[in-house]
Amino acid sequence: MRDNVPNRGAFAMLAYRDVLVHTWFAAICRWLLMNNHSPLSNLHGFPMLFAVSTRPRFVSFALIGWLCLAAAHAAEVELSPPVSKTEAASGEPTAVKALLICGGCCHDYQNQKEIISEGLSKSVGPIDWTIIQYAGEREVHADVYQSKDWIKGFDLVVHNECFGGVTDPDFVKGIVAAHVENQIPAMVIHCSMHSYRNSSAADTWRNFLGVTSVRHEKSKQSMLVEPTAAGKSHPVLASLGGENWETVNGELYIINQVWPGATVLATAFSNETNKAEPVIWTNQVEGTRVFGTTIGHHNETMLDPKYQSILADGWKWAMKQE
Ligand SMILES: [Zn+2]
């Protein structure tokens, strides 16, 4: 967009040229007048103005005024900001480009892709979505990841995938490498935490996610989400105001390990393990931001305004907009 707009250097050159032209023109006129060479000096009606020898003070004032006008004009040109015509015409912020990858086993990705993308667009502003949904099997090697440059052009990637049967270690490492090498933030939701869990590169994926999990509670039920001390003051959980949140329904993931870059923001108590299981967190991997939540099995829970707010604030944190 800026290619059509002169830069500040060009404005400075223009100003300098203006002063030079005005100054030379003024000097030549003054020389002509002082030496009585002006063809205008004898014209009827103009002698008062151009009879320099009899009115030197008047001409000096005129010249100073002329130079002042030239300088003011030059200053005005120089200080004009380089406004992009495109921005001025639309007045709209540029849409962020996001990729949403979903599919695999066990969930209603057909509707979840809409719930996630529409909710985020409504909350965080214009998003140019690319949504890829794969078949409902856990062994799907998502072809989007096959290209080395698959992540280029996106500002953020949402992983809501359930590919627990994929084991190819190079394939798994490639997904993480694309994020980290290009510093593209991620949001990882629910079954993404169980994807690639049987791969020898599973820990590379888990270090990226921020947690290790290989199973969930047997029963599905409402869960009480409790902010941790870190979560109470964290922008990602601002919508909870430090209070607990009882979800409509839920499938609680059992967390075996929290990785060093992760900060747990909320937990839910498991009656199976008799301990508080992390359910919302942030993670940082070599400077790449990852927002994660294991909440997201049931559409009705994802449609809860509190879940939508947490997703939106997770997006803002991942994008460093908090
Ligand atoms: Zn689930």
Automatic annotation (TrEMBL):
UniProt cross-references to Gene3D superfamilies, sorted A to Z: 3.40.50.880
Pfam families per the UniProt record, alphabetical: ThuA (PF06283)
Domain ThuA-like: residue ranges: 145-318
PANTHER family referenced in this protein's UniProt entry, alphabetically: GALACTOSE-BINDING DOMAIN-LIKE SUPERFAMILY PROTEIN, SECRETED GLYCOSYL HYDROLASE
Origin species: Neorhodopirellula pilleata
InterPro entries attached to this UniProt entry: Class_I_gatase-like, ThuA-like
Domain of life: Bacteria
Protein name: Trehalose utilization
Membrane-spanning parts: none
